[in-house]
């Protein structure tokens, strides 16, 4: 029997905590600085912030270090910390048109006003695993640093930031399509309060803002898997869309000062934004037009934003026919799914005892009926 | 509330901010006002994982003051590691004292058991709930589930009990037996054993159910009718093993668990067992 | 007691029934937006229930009738005639666009279309039952035959396992389902057997109204004959007000004493079943009768 002796449980936990802490802090290699995590593992930091629903790069770096690289564990640390923080203000609505793009691609057209801007992406880089030694890597870094030092804005290589300031926020493709009258207009005349999933759990049928909020902080893998399963799996209720636009860039967050009432920029976040164009061909739809799905998440996380945009429009067109909405609202959260899965490790011996008892009761009943 | 106060509370050992506690208390009040109804609430993330008692913990943190005494058990055992972890979180963040004696506790947080004795009008029992939906086995769609509860349409539940009895000769629900509360709502009684179910009926104590992952709170107020769903000619059966007694205290008046493939039994309520032994010594 | 009254465009025999159990007045169901021009652009004289004005479908319009206890009324017509639409509106599966349906219960008259979903559900449990063409619509395939009958019984408040089983056996015996199959999953039954289980389930709470939607369509001729025979004897035994929907006049002939003929959503003829078979007036009825005789 596991935990019979008095004080055994507390001792066990303390011993486990000490062990984890000691091994984590006293490993042979040098101390892992927050800056190293922020710079060298920036995409992991972005992913963790996105899934935690909390923009706090330094805290995310700390969390990743504490969790020894377990992304979901880091998300848990961030969200639990978030629970201790009182909410004392809401930001002003941020206009996605104000994002200063660092990367912007429009697969739907070859050329667009504002240009295709590949930016910092490995999409077209060959996936060769670099096996140079650390020394050689350091040498290369030194060389690149000294090349760059004389030329401001030169990011090492031929990539220049050619866009002027107006092109940092280029007109989005959706607007152009609207001007061509090719898009169903689902904009609302009123401006409803967005559904706050951190205060009220969302259940189907839910407002679109509830669905989008749930997806924006969903587990990346879960969203990608939902998308993939629905395209290829037996359910198959998703259509592949044409991506209208993929953007990544910085967005200012503005809050009204509690005393002066003046707008104050409190920080700049980075977001990835995707608009997905869906071809309408349903009987009850306007087949002369397209519709659009929307995806937005913290940090640079394109596969999540793309999956989100696809699933947004799929859910709208599904209109409650299937349980897609329920799936998205309730099975994509990293902590809910991982926590519940791992809770199986907790003792369940009371239930198991009860199950065994019913097995014997069934046999007794069967013998009784047989005789 | 001054910004300073808010900042102070954020720096303390508090696991939940004050507004969150207020929200949770409101959900609790709604739950008590409508026995058995699952009240949605803005469930916060806790230092314990979802599925590990985050809901029970939030309820406990919302109702406990520093003059309370808390008992925390898992499978009936105060010393279970998860119970230990939860208990120290509660006591350090609220300043409450701890005990293993149910009669001394004002708030008892428990996973999967009701303590064998010691609960009275002054007690609050907080149960940890993995899945709050009793109809989950017969329906998956949440919209349909909402309708079934709203219209008290539990016919599918009854059909599944009928099929169970027909197929197996007995009703094979193990723990978490579905009960009709206050003649209105069917609830999932968390995975507490059938042994504990009768004590919910007309209990002197308040029982609060916290499902953190599913974001629901429900309640059975004191002196409320709680009936396990069964046919009038199919008696409700608690767990039973012929001749089994606890190898430590020699009693069979408490819920017993055993070692695998063995006739060695033990009380699941470790503190009840200890006191029984001490009383007969 | 027949008065020939002309209303709408079609002269129909207005059969006044002194003790009606179910009374339907000017029931209509339109898919899509509609007004008078839309309505008048559809119907048997136009030859379609789909409006040329805006594409709306007038699935049923201006349907009125009464059914007494112990009486069976037929609704006959080809597919698309609107007969199934009428049945589904009465069953509560589809919301009507207009019209009234009154049911006589022990507590007085109930206006069926004014009930909320909870009250509607109670009506389906206590008073009104439906037998669908496809047994999968009226039964749960992964539940036993007895379990399917237990559903309306428990919904009506039965809580005694032994009594539930007795009642289920009694009903299955009456509908000639072998008792040793009572605990088998309905999925494993033949088509005819499934229909018998569905009928047994429909009778569980002794309803005063039963709606039959093409009860034997899709069954083998010999199997169908057996089921029809069963329905006929059940209707004789119990004082049920029944509505039988079928495209097959021989089914109508066997089961009903009066019937309505529908085409393109409208009632085109309304008379005693025997009279209709003997001397059909409307050309559409004539065609249907001829088909049945062939």
What does this structure look like?
The complex is a heterotrimer of chains A (371), B (281) and C (294). Chain A is of the alpha+beta class. Chain A has helices at residues 8-25, 34-40, 42-52, 57-66, 71-84, 134-149, 173-179, 208-216, 220-232, 302-318, 324-330, 334-342, 349-370; strands at residues 100-105, 242-256, 263-279, 290-298. In chain A, strands 1-2-3-4 form a 4-stranded antiparallel beta sheet. Chain A folds into 4 domains: 10-82, no CATH class; 96-117 and 164-332, no CATH class; 126-162; 340-370. In chain A, helix 9 crosses helix 10. With 281 residues, chain B is an alpha/beta fold. Chain B has 2 domains: 11-134 and 189-224, Rossmann fold (3-Layer(aba) Sandwich); 245-281, no CATH class. Chain B has 7 helices and 12 strands. In chain B, strand 11 (256-258) and strand 12 form a beta hairpin. Chain B is globular and about 55 Å long. The mean pLDDT of chain B is 93. Chain C is an alpha/beta fold and 294 residues long. Chain C is built from 11 helices and 12 strands. Chain C has helices at 36-40, 83-91, 117-126, 135-138, 145-155, 161-174, 191-202, 221-237, 249-255, 273-278, 283-293; strands at residues 2-7, 10-15, 20-31, 57-68, 72-76, 98-105, 108-111, 128-131, 209-213, 241-246, 258-263, 266-272. Chain C has a 6-stranded mixed beta sheet with strand order 8-9-10-5-11-12, with helices on both faces. In chain C, helix 5 packs parallel to helix 7 and helix 6 packs across helix 7 (191-202). Chain C starts with a strand and ends with a helix. Classes of the chains: A alpha+beta (371), B alpha/beta (281), C alpha/beta (294). Chains in contact: A-B, B-C. At the A-B interface, helix 1, helix 5, helix 12 and helix 13 of A face helix 1, helix 2, helix 4, helix 5 and strand 11 of B.
